[in-house]
Design brief:
Layout lengths: L11 H21 L1 H10 L2 H16 L42 E7 L1 H13 L6 E7 L8 E2 L7 H12 L3 E5 L8 E3 L14 H6 L12 E3 L19 E2 L7 E3 L4 H18 L6 E4 L7 H21 L2 E3 L15 E3 L5 E3 L14
Parallel strand pairs: 1-2, 1-4, 4-9, 9-10
Antiparallel strand pairs: 3-7, 5-8, 6-8, 11-12
Helix pairs in contact: 1-2, 5-7, 7-8
Protein backbone atom coordinates (compact mmCIF):
# COMPACT_ATOMS: atom_id res chain seq x y z
CA UNK A 1 0.00 0.00 0.00
CA UNK A 2 1.45 3.44 -0.77
CA UNK A 3 2.46 5.73 2.02
CA UNK A 4 -0.17 8.26 1.09
CA UNK A 5 -2.94 5.80 1.56
CA UNK A 6 -5.06 3.69 -0.74
CA UNK A 7 -5.66 4.79 -4.35
CA UNK A 8 -9.07 6.31 -4.80
CA UNK A 9 -11.08 5.02 -7.74
CA UNK A 10 -11.38 7.42 -10.65
CA UNK A 11 -14.87 8.75 -11.24
CA UNK A 12 -16.76 7.90 -14.44
CA UNK A 13 -16.89 11.52 -15.64
CA UNK A 14 -13.13 11.95 -15.30
CA UNK A 15 -12.55 8.68 -17.13
CA UNK A 16 -14.67 9.85 -20.02
CA UNK A 17 -12.79 13.18 -20.17
CA UNK A 18 -9.39 11.51 -20.20
CA UNK A 19 -10.50 9.08 -22.85
CA UNK A 20 -11.82 11.95 -24.98
CA UNK A 21 -8.55 13.86 -24.69
CA UNK A 22 -6.62 10.79 -25.73
CA UNK A 23 -8.96 10.34 -28.67
CA UNK A 24 -8.40 13.96 -29.82
CA UNK A 25 -4.63 13.56 -29.51
CA UNK A 26 -4.70 10.39 -31.57
CA UNK A 27 -6.96 12.04 -34.14
CA UNK A 28 -4.58 15.00 -34.43
CA UNK A 29 -1.67 12.69 -35.01
CA UNK A 30 -3.65 10.83 -37.64
CA UNK A 31 -4.45 14.05 -39.50
CA UNK A 32 -0.93 15.44 -39.26
CA UNK A 33 1.03 12.33 -40.21
CA UNK A 34 -0.46 10.10 -42.93
CA UNK A 35 2.02 7.32 -42.10
CA UNK A 36 1.10 7.42 -38.44
CA UNK A 37 -2.55 7.49 -39.37
CA UNK A 38 -2.25 4.09 -40.99
CA UNK A 39 -0.72 2.62 -37.80
CA UNK A 40 -3.29 4.23 -35.56
CA UNK A 41 -6.12 3.08 -37.80
CA UNK A 42 -4.83 -0.47 -37.47
CA UNK A 43 -4.68 -0.22 -33.66
CA UNK A 44 -7.76 1.92 -33.15
CA UNK A 45 -10.17 1.09 -35.99
CA UNK A 46 -12.98 3.09 -34.34
CA UNK A 47 -11.01 6.32 -35.10
CA UNK A 48 -11.12 5.89 -38.88
CA UNK A 49 -14.76 6.83 -39.13
CA UNK A 50 -14.30 9.92 -36.92
CA UNK A 51 -11.29 11.11 -38.95
CA UNK A 52 -13.27 10.81 -42.16
CA UNK A 53 -16.14 12.83 -40.72
CA UNK A 54 -13.71 15.50 -39.49
CA UNK A 55 -12.16 15.91 -42.93
CA UNK A 56 -15.64 16.25 -44.43
CA UNK A 57 -16.49 18.96 -41.87
CA UNK A 58 -13.26 20.82 -42.73
CA UNK A 59 -14.16 20.91 -46.43
CA UNK A 60 -17.65 22.23 -45.66
CA UNK A 61 -16.17 25.08 -43.62
CA UNK A 62 -14.08 26.37 -46.52
CA UNK A 63 -15.19 29.70 -48.00
CA UNK A 64 -17.27 29.28 -51.16
CA UNK A 65 -14.95 31.85 -52.77
CA UNK A 66 -11.79 29.88 -51.94
CA UNK A 67 -11.69 26.58 -53.77
CA UNK A 68 -9.36 23.84 -52.59
CA UNK A 69 -6.01 23.59 -54.40
CA UNK A 70 -7.19 20.71 -56.56
CA UNK A 71 -10.27 22.74 -57.54
CA UNK A 72 -8.48 25.99 -58.46
CA UNK A 73 -9.32 26.98 -62.07
CA UNK A 74 -6.50 27.36 -64.52
CA UNK A 75 -5.24 30.94 -64.75
CA UNK A 76 -6.37 32.49 -68.05
CA UNK A 77 -3.75 33.92 -70.33
CA UNK A 78 -3.29 37.62 -69.92
CA UNK A 79 -4.77 39.31 -72.96
CA UNK A 80 -3.41 42.55 -74.30
CA UNK A 81 -6.24 45.05 -74.72
CA UNK A 82 -6.12 46.85 -78.03
CA UNK A 83 -7.23 50.43 -78.31
CA UNK A 84 -10.56 50.62 -80.08
CA UNK A 85 -10.75 52.91 -83.08
CA UNK A 86 -14.27 53.28 -84.53
CA UNK A 87 -12.92 54.84 -87.73
CA UNK A 88 -11.05 51.69 -88.77
CA UNK A 89 -13.01 48.52 -89.56
CA UNK A 90 -11.48 45.03 -89.53
CA UNK A 91 -9.35 44.01 -92.49
CA UNK A 92 -10.92 42.31 -95.46
CA UNK A 93 -11.83 38.63 -94.95
CA UNK A 94 -9.22 36.31 -96.39
CA UNK A 95 -10.13 34.60 -99.64
CA UNK A 96 -10.08 30.85 -99.99
CA UNK A 97 -6.98 29.45 -101.61
CA UNK A 98 -9.06 27.71 -104.28
CA UNK A 99 -11.29 30.75 -104.94
CA UNK A 100 -11.17 32.05 -108.51
CA UNK A 101 -9.91 35.53 -109.25
CA UNK A 102 -12.70 38.17 -109.16
CA UNK A 103 -14.26 38.78 -112.53
CA UNK A 104 -15.76 42.13 -111.41
CA UNK A 105 -14.14 44.79 -109.24
CA UNK A 106 -16.07 47.30 -107.11
CA UNK A 107 -13.93 50.30 -106.13
CA UNK A 108 -15.08 52.26 -103.06
CA UNK A 109 -13.96 55.89 -102.61
CA UNK A 110 -14.50 58.22 -99.68
CA UNK A 111 -13.73 58.84 -96.00
CA UNK A 112 -13.98 56.72 -92.83
CA UNK A 113 -17.66 55.96 -93.44
CA UNK A 114 -16.72 54.69 -96.90
CA UNK A 115 -14.10 52.48 -95.27
CA UNK A 116 -16.84 50.83 -93.22
CA UNK A 117 -19.07 50.64 -96.28
CA UNK A 118 -16.35 48.75 -98.14
CA UNK A 119 -16.00 46.35 -95.21
CA UNK A 120 -19.74 45.71 -95.23
CA UNK A 121 -19.61 44.91 -98.94
CA UNK A 122 -16.69 42.53 -98.33
CA UNK A 123 -18.72 40.61 -95.75
CA UNK A 124 -21.89 40.63 -97.87
CA UNK A 125 -20.02 39.25 -100.91
CA UNK A 126 -17.78 36.86 -98.96
CA UNK A 127 -19.56 33.89 -100.56
CA UNK A 128 -19.41 35.46 -104.01
CA UNK A 129 -15.71 35.26 -104.93
CA UNK A 130 -16.28 36.51 -108.47
CA UNK A 131 -16.97 40.01 -107.03
CA UNK A 132 -13.99 41.79 -105.52
CA UNK A 133 -14.13 44.89 -103.28
CA UNK A 134 -11.29 47.40 -103.52
CA UNK A 135 -10.92 49.92 -100.70
CA UNK A 136 -9.83 53.36 -101.86
CA UNK A 137 -10.97 55.40 -98.87
CA UNK A 138 -8.87 57.93 -97.01
CA UNK A 139 -9.57 59.10 -93.48
CA UNK A 140 -9.98 62.78 -92.63
CA UNK A 141 -10.59 63.83 -96.22
CA UNK A 142 -13.47 65.46 -98.06
CA UNK A 143 -14.37 67.53 -101.07
CA UNK A 144 -13.29 70.54 -99.02
CA UNK A 145 -9.59 69.86 -98.93
CA UNK A 146 -7.71 69.63 -95.65
CA UNK A 147 -4.09 70.71 -96.02
CA UNK A 148 -1.64 68.38 -94.29
CA UNK A 149 2.04 68.94 -93.70
CA UNK A 150 3.00 67.31 -96.96
CA UNK A 151 0.02 67.37 -99.27
CA UNK A 152 -3.44 68.59 -100.11
CA UNK A 153 -5.56 65.58 -101.00
CA UNK A 154 -7.41 66.38 -104.21
CA UNK A 155 -10.17 63.76 -104.54
CA UNK A 156 -11.14 64.38 -108.19
CA UNK A 157 -7.55 64.14 -109.38
CA UNK A 158 -6.74 61.13 -107.19
CA UNK A 159 -9.88 59.30 -108.31
CA UNK A 160 -9.08 59.83 -111.99
CA UNK A 161 -5.60 58.39 -111.52
CA UNK A 162 -6.81 55.33 -109.57
CA UNK A 163 -9.60 54.59 -112.05
CA UNK A 164 -7.22 54.80 -114.99
CA UNK A 165 -4.66 52.54 -113.29
CA UNK A 166 -6.91 49.78 -111.90
CA UNK A 167 -9.95 49.92 -114.24
CA UNK A 168 -12.78 48.77 -111.93
CA UNK A 169 -16.18 47.63 -113.17
CA UNK A 170 -18.24 49.60 -110.63
CA UNK A 171 -17.54 52.78 -108.66
CA UNK A 172 -19.01 53.64 -105.25
CA UNK A 173 -18.60 57.01 -103.49
CA UNK A 174 -19.42 57.98 -99.90
CA UNK A 175 -18.01 61.20 -98.43
CA UNK A 176 -18.92 64.36 -96.57
CA UNK A 177 -18.28 63.68 -92.89
CA UNK A 178 -15.51 66.31 -92.65
CA UNK A 179 -17.06 68.79 -95.10
CA UNK A 180 -19.08 70.65 -92.48
CA UNK A 181 -16.69 73.62 -92.53
CA UNK A 182 -16.16 76.86 -94.36
CA UNK A 183 -15.10 77.04 -98.01
CA UNK A 184 -12.41 79.48 -99.03
CA UNK A 185 -13.11 81.34 -102.25
CA UNK A 186 -10.07 82.98 -103.83
CA UNK A 187 -11.10 86.21 -105.54
CA UNK A 188 -8.88 87.86 -108.17
CA UNK A 189 -6.92 90.88 -106.96
CA UNK A 190 -8.17 94.25 -108.30
CA UNK A 191 -6.22 95.55 -111.32
CA UNK A 192 -3.96 98.60 -110.73
CA UNK A 193 -5.39 101.96 -111.79
CA UNK A 194 -2.46 102.79 -114.10
CA UNK A 195 0.63 101.11 -115.40
CA UNK A 196 2.88 103.31 -113.33
CA UNK A 197 1.71 101.60 -110.15
CA UNK A 198 2.94 98.19 -111.32
CA UNK A 199 6.56 98.79 -110.36
CA UNK A 200 7.89 98.08 -106.86
CA UNK A 201 8.86 101.75 -106.35
CA UNK A 202 5.41 103.02 -107.22
CA UNK A 203 3.79 100.40 -104.98
CA UNK A 204 5.97 101.44 -102.08
CA UNK A 205 4.75 105.02 -102.06
CA UNK A 206 1.24 104.58 -103.45
CA UNK A 207 -1.68 103.60 -101.22
CA UNK A 208 -3.29 100.32 -102.26
CA UNK A 209 -7.03 100.14 -103.02
CA UNK A 210 -9.14 98.95 -100.13
CA UNK A 211 -10.44 95.37 -100.18
CA UNK A 212 -14.24 95.05 -100.45
CA UNK A 213 -15.98 94.26 -97.18
CA UNK A 214 -17.17 90.62 -96.90
CA UNK A 215 -20.85 89.99 -97.45
CA UNK A 216 -23.17 88.25 -95.01
CA UNK A 217 -21.97 84.75 -94.22
CA UNK A 218 -18.42 85.59 -95.24
CA UNK A 219 -15.34 86.50 -93.31
CA UNK A 220 -11.80 87.38 -94.41
CA UNK A 221 -9.49 84.40 -94.41
CA UNK A 222 -6.74 84.75 -91.77
CA UNK A 223 -3.15 84.96 -92.88
CA UNK A 224 -1.40 81.79 -91.83
CA UNK A 225 2.28 81.02 -91.70
CA UNK A 226 3.66 78.37 -94.01
CA UNK A 227 3.67 75.00 -92.19
CA UNK A 228 7.07 73.67 -91.19
CA UNK A 229 8.02 70.05 -91.98
CA UNK A 230 7.35 67.70 -89.10
CA UNK A 231 8.44 64.12 -89.56
CA UNK A 232 6.32 62.99 -86.61
CA UNK A 233 3.12 64.15 -88.27
CA UNK A 234 0.93 61.49 -89.85
CA UNK A 235 -0.33 62.28 -93.35
CA UNK A 236 -3.87 61.39 -92.32
CA UNK A 237 -3.87 63.87 -89.46
CA UNK A 238 -5.32 67.23 -90.50
CA UNK A 239 -3.06 70.22 -89.94
CA UNK A 240 -4.47 73.29 -91.70
CA UNK A 241 -8.09 73.28 -92.94
CA UNK A 242 -8.76 74.91 -96.27
CA UNK A 243 -10.74 77.67 -94.55
CA UNK A 244 -7.62 78.73 -92.60
CA UNK A 245 -5.39 79.25 -95.62
CA UNK A 246 -4.41 82.84 -96.48
CA UNK A 247 -6.21 84.86 -99.13
CA UNK A 248 -9.76 85.08 -100.38
CA UNK A 249 -13.01 84.98 -98.46
CA UNK A 250 -14.35 82.14 -96.32
CA UNK A 251 -18.03 81.24 -96.77
CA UNK A 252 -19.62 79.68 -93.71
CA UNK A 253 -21.20 76.24 -93.84
CA UNK A 254 -24.82 76.12 -95.06
CA UNK A 255 -24.88 79.66 -96.42
CA UNK A 256 -26.24 80.17 -99.92
CA UNK A 257 -22.80 80.82 -101.40
CA UNK A 258 -21.37 77.79 -99.59
CA UNK A 259 -23.99 75.55 -101.17
CA UNK A 260 -23.21 76.98 -104.61
CA UNK A 261 -19.46 76.40 -104.27
CA UNK A 262 -19.85 72.94 -102.73
CA UNK A 263 -22.26 71.91 -105.47
CA UNK A 264 -19.55 72.68 -108.02
CA UNK A 265 -17.15 70.43 -106.12
CA UNK A 266 -19.70 67.60 -106.18
CA UNK A 267 -20.04 68.06 -109.94
CA UNK A 268 -16.26 67.92 -110.33
CA UNK A 269 -16.10 64.73 -108.27
CA UNK A 270 -18.90 63.06 -110.25
CA UNK A 271 -17.16 63.94 -113.51
CA UNK A 272 -14.02 62.22 -112.23
CA UNK A 273 -15.96 59.12 -111.18
CA UNK A 274 -17.64 58.91 -114.60
CA UNK A 275 -14.30 59.12 -116.44
CA UNK A 276 -14.01 55.33 -116.39
CA UNK A 277 -17.35 54.90 -118.17
CA UNK A 278 -18.75 52.35 -115.70
CA UNK A 279 -21.79 52.51 -113.36
CA UNK A 280 -21.33 55.02 -110.52
CA UNK A 281 -23.19 54.86 -107.19
CA UNK A 282 -23.18 57.77 -104.74
CA UNK A 283 -24.19 56.61 -101.24
CA UNK A 284 -25.85 59.19 -99.00
CA UNK A 285 -24.84 59.86 -95.41
CA UNK A 286 -26.61 58.29 -92.41
CA UNK A 287 -28.00 60.17 -89.45
CA UNK A 288 -25.49 61.12 -86.75
CA UNK A 289 -26.21 61.39 -83.05
CA UNK A 290 -27.29 64.93 -82.13
CA UNK A 291 -30.00 67.20 -83.48
CA UNK A 292 -27.61 69.60 -85.16
CA UNK A 293 -25.48 66.86 -86.72
CA UNK A 294 -28.57 65.11 -88.05
CA UNK A 295 -29.80 68.29 -89.72
CA UNK A 296 -26.35 68.79 -91.28
CA UNK A 297 -26.49 65.30 -92.80
CA UNK A 298 -29.94 66.05 -94.24
CA UNK A 299 -28.60 69.25 -95.82
CA UNK A 300 -25.60 67.50 -97.42
CA UNK A 301 -27.73 64.60 -98.69
CA UNK A 302 -30.04 67.02 -100.48
CA UNK A 303 -27.03 68.39 -102.35
CA UNK A 304 -25.68 64.93 -103.21
CA UNK A 305 -29.05 63.66 -104.40
CA UNK A 306 -29.74 66.67 -106.60
CA UNK A 307 -26.30 66.66 -108.23
CA UNK A 308 -26.33 62.87 -108.73
CA UNK A 309 -29.71 62.94 -110.45
CA UNK A 310 -28.59 65.82 -112.64
CA UNK A 311 -25.43 63.94 -113.66
CA UNK A 312 -27.29 60.68 -114.37
CA UNK A 313 -25.65 58.51 -111.71
CA UNK A 314 -27.38 56.38 -109.07
CA UNK A 315 -27.97 57.92 -105.65
CA UNK A 316 -28.50 55.40 -102.83
CA UNK A 317 -30.50 56.72 -99.87
CA UNK A 318 -29.68 54.82 -96.66
CA UNK A 319 -31.34 57.27 -94.24
CA UNK A 320 -34.34 55.17 -93.19
CA UNK A 321 -32.11 52.29 -92.12
CA UNK A 322 -30.52 54.30 -89.30
CA UNK A 323 -33.39 56.31 -87.78
CA UNK A 324 -36.39 55.44 -85.65
CA UNK A 325 -40.04 56.02 -86.55
CA UNK A 326 -39.71 59.68 -85.58
CA UNK A 327 -36.75 60.20 -87.92
CA UNK A 328 -34.25 60.46 -85.06
CA UNK A 329 -30.83 58.84 -84.76
CA UNK A 330 -31.08 55.20 -83.71
CA UNK A 331 -28.22 52.90 -82.75
CA UNK A 332 -30.28 49.75 -83.33
CA UNK A 333 -32.19 48.45 -86.29
CA UNK A 334 -32.52 45.57 -88.76
CA UNK A 335 -29.41 44.41 -90.57
CA UNK A 336 -29.55 43.39 -94.23
CA UNK A 337 -30.97 39.99 -93.19
CA UNK A 338 -33.76 41.60 -91.14
CA UNK A 339 -32.33 40.80 -87.69
CA UNK A 340 -32.37 43.63 -85.12
CA UNK A 341 -28.76 44.45 -84.30
CA UNK A 342 -26.64 47.30 -83.03
CA UNK A 343 -25.76 49.24 -86.18
CA UNK A 344 -23.68 52.17 -84.86
CA UNK A 345 -20.61 52.47 -82.65
CA UNK A 346 -20.43 54.33 -79.35
CA UNK A 347 -19.18 57.53 -81.04
CA UNK A 348 -22.60 57.95 -82.67
CA UNK A 349 -21.01 58.33 -86.13
CA UNK A 350 -19.48 55.14 -87.50
CA UNK A 351 -20.92 51.72 -88.21
CA UNK A 352 -20.65 48.37 -86.51
CA UNK A 353 -20.17 45.37 -88.80
CA UNK A 354 -23.96 44.71 -89.04
CA UNK A 355 -24.46 48.41 -89.75
CA UNK A 356 -21.82 48.37 -92.45
Amino acid sequence: MPANGPVKPVSGRLSALLFGLAEVAVLACALAQPAAAQVLDDRFPFLEDRARRYRSWQQQQQSPFQASPDQQPAQPRQQVQQQYDPTRPPPAPSRRADAPAPSAQVMVFGDSLAEWLAHGLEVAFAETPEIGIVRKSRLQTGLIRIETRYESYDWPQQAKEMLAAEKPDYVVMMIGLTDRRGIREVKPAPAPRNAAQKGPAAQKGTPQPAQPAPAAGEKPAPVAEAPQPDTAQNDDQPATPEASLPGGVVHEFRTEKWGELYGKRIDEMIAALKSRGVPVFWVGLPSIRGTRATSEMVYLNDLYRGRAEKAGITYIDIWDGFVDEGGNFNQYGPDFEGQTRRLRTTDGVHFTQPGA
